[in-house]
Design goal:
Layout lengths: L6 H17 L4 E5 L21 H12 L4 E3 L42 H9 L10 H24 L3 H16 L1 H17 L10 H4 L10 H14 L1 H27 L3 E6 L5 H6 L4 E9 L9 E8 L1 H4 L8 H16 L3 E4 L3 H4 L2 E4 L11 E2 L37 H7 L1 H13 L7 E3 L7 H10 L2 E5 L22 E3 L8 H10 L3 H12 L4 H10 L1 H14 L4 E5 H5 L24 H11 L5 H10 L3 H6 L1 H14 L1
Parallel strand pairs: 1-2, 1-12, 2-3, 3-6, 6-9, 9-10, 10-11, 11-12
Antiparallel strand pairs: 4-5, 4-7, 7-8
Helix pairs in contact: 1-23, 1-25, 6-9, 12-15, 18-19, 18-20, 19-20, 20-23, 23-25
């Protein structure tokens, strides 16, 4: 049997952790966990996680008692049949795999699904570990949701009172989301017609250009084809829309549950456009150019992502107001802020400020025409989009270099910032969310225009301690150098788990310099002795890596779920694909697992890390909070 808190102990523990976080001036303490990684309730493991399930509610209760006041989710758009990556998912449609099937067996959802169907999926779940089984669950969910839709239609014919209420809400949902819902559902119908959900290989050219006629097709031809599609695939279109309605209802219920716990969710806005969105909005993209990354240490040819790039002229009108393309982006952010009151994390923020693009059929290298969309006044094709002039160019570096653009005027910085100001920030304000809740993923290459924009708008970025260079005193990822507005973390979903990273430091004899820095920052009065302790005691070193987050001046802390539990399995290996990527989950027996990992010294011992953080502030500060430290010590001993 694993250690269990009594209800009284839980309240006392949570109150003590919250008091310590307040003393350390921590406003937000969020767990990073993507939707698929949530655990299942006992005997309800379908093979895929969701934040809407009973298992998720129990887990939310657990992490809330550990002091967390929010969850940083991953992108929750609909993923492709053959690709589980949430970072290539849809902008608007939510992932049907996040529907909790068991809720569909309840009266709230008109008993659209039988428990027998749920039980069959659970019993046939091929996963025997804490990993998702994507291909299995993708097919099984489709069958189960089709059963639910058939039941809905049948009960509607029978005038079932609950189903009639569902239909009323369904009609409101369709009306509210008409901007994107029709397009996404028509794409689903065409995917069935053509036998795959990748539109570039469809053989019918009119189907490819259904929402952007004008070259070889007229609007009349497109309208006629649309009528044919809607008539022939009426059930498929309604089915898609009904499933989206179910995902919306369940997420609204989860949002209410979180609010009762005093918790919020942060959305994750990927830089990519899905195939579905590319097809629906291709009129707004630059023809034959794609988003990527320039050559760097990891890729000498650069990274060819293949994501379309929105045409600046179709995002903004000459007078600076939003054009139709900009309105699409704004609607996307409005939806995200509405569904996630904690805010939005913007992946690859450079993609909204100073994106790097390359031409179709070429590598993303400067010598093959690749360049920064808004920063290339000398470029033959991209020059018309340039914000800086020739005099802003630093000719001593290549055009992909972050120092290429210099000496920007205020009006130029304002032009670089217009997507953030007029689309993202304005959307947040309209949904009652402040600018502090916009988090910019600013890791890796950051150009001068990006730095200027983030400084001008006072936007928060990310500081990942695994990226610290211990040889550089003022390195930005050394936590003592972090500003108040930023979000600090040991690692994210793209990093090696903390326990693995620490093991590598010991194996590669790199531990001493890291231990020296931690000792200087956490025990300035006893640096040498503490440094030696960290070198000799792996557990204390891991605790110190967590403690520096809480000791920093930053108000916001995030911990990736794998690091919290001390797991040694990686969630994502950037630049690779395979069944193990995006598949790691919290084990269903997470509470026992957590205490086992604590005994090994690999999971996050919150009281111990907070003690270390408080003591790092000096003896006078520690003395002032003597009673709090005593309570933390008692809880640290209890859980370990």
């Amino acid at each position: 049997m694993c250690k269990k808190f009594t209800e009284k102990d839980k309240k006392g523990f949570k109150k003590t952790i919250q008091e310590a976080l307040k003393v350390l001036n921590k406003k937000n303490f969020y767990m990073i966990i993507h939707g698929a990684s949530f655990p299942s309730a006992k005997n309800k493991n379908t093979g895929f996680g969701t934040y809407n399930s009973d298992g998720a509610k129990e887990f939310i209760e657990f992490v809330n008692n550990m002091g967390f006041n929010g969850l940083q989710l991953g992108p929750d758009g609909k993923t492709k049949t053959v690709d589980s990556s949430p970072y290539t998912a849809t902008l608007f449609s939510n992932n049907p795999l996040f529907i909790d099937l068991y809720q569909l067996t309840t009266r709230e959802f008109a008993e659209l699904l039988t428990e027998e169907t749920c039980r069959k999926i659970i019993n046939n779940n091929p996963s025997k570990s804490n990993h998702t089984v994507y291909s299995y669950i993708y097919k099984e969910y489709n069958k189960a949701l089709r059963e639910a839709f058939r039941t809905y239609k049948a009960k509607l014919s029978d005038n079932d009172k609950k189903v009639k209420q569902l239909k009323k809400n369904f009609d409101k949902f369709k009306e509210k989301n008409s901007l994107w819902l029709e397009k996404d559902s028509v794409y689903e119908a065409l995917s069935i017609k053509h036998g795959n959900d990748y539109w570039p290989v469809w053989e019918d050219e009119l189907d490819k250009k259904l929402y952007c006629p004008g070259h070889q097709f007229t609007q009349q031809q497109a309208d006629q084809r649309m009528l044919e599609i809607k008539e022939k695939f009426a059930d498929e279109i309604e089915f898609y829309q009904f499933v989206q309605f179910l995902t919306y209802m369940q997420k609204q219920n989860t949002k209410k549950y979180l609010a009762k716990k005093g918790m919020k969710t942060i959305a994750d806005a990927q830089v990519a456009f899905s195939d579905r969105d590319f097809w629906a909005y291709q009129y707004y993209f630059i023809e034959d150019y794609y988003l990527g990354c320039p050559p760097d240490f990891f890729s000498e040819d650069g990274q060819a992502w293949g994501f379309p790039v929105m045409d600046p002229d179709k995002m903004f009108n000459p007078d600076g107001t939003l054009a139709d393309g900009g309105k699409i982006l704004k609607a996307r952010f409005e939806k995200m802020f509405e569904e996630n009151p904690g805010g939005v994390r913007i992946d690859h923020i450079i993609g909204l400020i100073d994106p790097y693009v390359y031409k179709k059929g070429h590598r993303p290298k400067p010598e093959e025409g690749a360049s920064r969309l808004y920063s290339s006044p000398e470029h033959e094709e991209l020059g018309k989009y340039a914000i800086p002039a020739e005099e802003n160019l630093n000719h001593e570096v290549s055009r992909d270099n972050e120092q290429r653009i210099v000496n920007l005027a205020d009006y130029q910085v304002k032009q670089y910032s217009r997507i953030l100001e007029k689309i993202v920030i304005q959307s947040a304000e309209e949904k009652g969310i402040d600018k502090e809740s916009i988090i910019c993923e600013d890791l890796g290459t950051i150009t001068n225009p990006v730095l200027e924009v983030m400084n001008k708008l006072a936007l928060s970025g990310l500081r990942v301690t695994e990226f610290v260079d211990p040889q550089v005193e003022d390195h930005p990822y050394r936590i003592k150098n972090t500003d108040l507005i930023h979000w600090v973390m040991a690692g994210s979903h793209d990093n090696s788990p903390l326990v693995n990273w620490v093991s590598e430091l010991y194996e590669q004899n790199k531990i001493e310099t890291h231990a020296k820095n931690l000792a200087e920052d956490l025990k300035p009065s006893n640096t040498d002795e503490f440094k030696q302790e960290l070198i000799e005691n792996r557990r204390r070193f891991i605790t110190a890596k967590f403690a520096e987050l809480f000791a920093s001046s930053a108000e916001n802390v995030q911990v990736f779920f794998a690091d919290f539990f001390g797991m040694n399995q990686r969630y994502n290996q950037p630049g690779t694909s395979g069944d193990q990527n995006w598949s790691l989950r919290v084990p269903d027996n997470y509470e026992c697992f957590y205490y086992d990992q604590l005994k090994k010294g690999e999971a996050l011992n919150m009281p111990e890390a907070l003690i270390m953080a408080i003591e790092s502030k000096g003896s006078k500060f520690a003395a002032k909070h003597r009673e709090l430290l005593e309570k933390l010590r008692n809880y640290s001993e209890f859980i370990s």
